[in-house]
Amino acid sequence: MRFRTFGRLGWHVSEVGYGMWGMGGWSGSDDRESMASLELAVSRGVTFFDTAQAYGDGHSEQLLSILLAGHRDKRVLAATKVPPKNRQWPSSRGVPLGQVFARSYVREYVDISRSNLRVDTIDLLQLHVWEDDWLASGELQQTVAELKRDGSIRGFGISLNRWEPWNGVKAVRSGLVDSIQVIYNIFDQAPEDELFPACRENKVAVIARVPFDEGSLIGNLTLRTTWPEGDWRSTYFVPKNLAASVARADALKPLAPAGMTMAEMALRFILSNPDVSTVIPGMRKADNVQANTAASDAGPLSPALIARLRAHRWDRKPTSWSQ
Hints:
The chain has about 325 residues and is an alpha/beta fold. It has 11 helices and 10 strands.
């Protein structure tokens, strides 16, 4: 496992982290299998674990608490997120901060997450949606300063809405945030345009999420792929999106070098960018952990392959199904 510096916080973090959404409530999740995968990840050098109160109504946080309790001798970092009060993912333009992340509400959920994680101090608290307009009132700046001052949190970050990397640049430049979580992968290269340079300039850590484009970049989706009722992916991969995603993934398959899976190529593309502090693939099973952590050991892709992958950039705009 290779390690990187987590922005101005200076943490030494594994460049492959652990995204815990799937084990919070996706179909096919099993707690015993999830815990075994988490333990394997620690043994393979993973130190950064990303969860949220909304993942199974705290279930994912509670699983992480077991891992934290068993590794108090190690620097295992827990990052979690406050859900929007109005439960709207993504956030909507024009909705004021007070209806989504009022001071009293944020403090309430900090305490809920501390209880779920069984910690006094949360390493990284993030807001699960974001609008740059929320900076204007100054209320959030006061809330974050208070939480840091009283020892409730160590760092503060935001998770950006899907396909809106521009809607976070002001936050980065404001000095409020220590980290930005953003979708970044072979298809979604837009964060490189403006967001990453701002993060670099202001020493803000970058957490790259959705490295496999919700599964399409693994290369095993087909036009006949379905998911059980209630599985979030069934609402994301509507017929129009599934068809486009499968076509674009199929166009990438010939670029994977011999002996390299699509998933490895996708992860190593992200890790080839030094602006990324850590990438957080979802890993519910042991073989996922083994494959994804091995991508770190393999190192960056060749410049020639990266140049070919850049041609597969896919700029998209949020829609009713993109969430």
